[in-house]
Protein: Fructosamine kinase
Amino acid sequence: PLHQLHPLAVHAASHGPSYGDALHDAARTVLRM
Structure:
């Protein structure tokens, strides 16, 4: 999941909030590791 954070952040910034949820979930998963 760590490798997914940057692409998800870029998509959240450029394509809207629907990617924000995926970014949040991926970040929480990384923090739990």
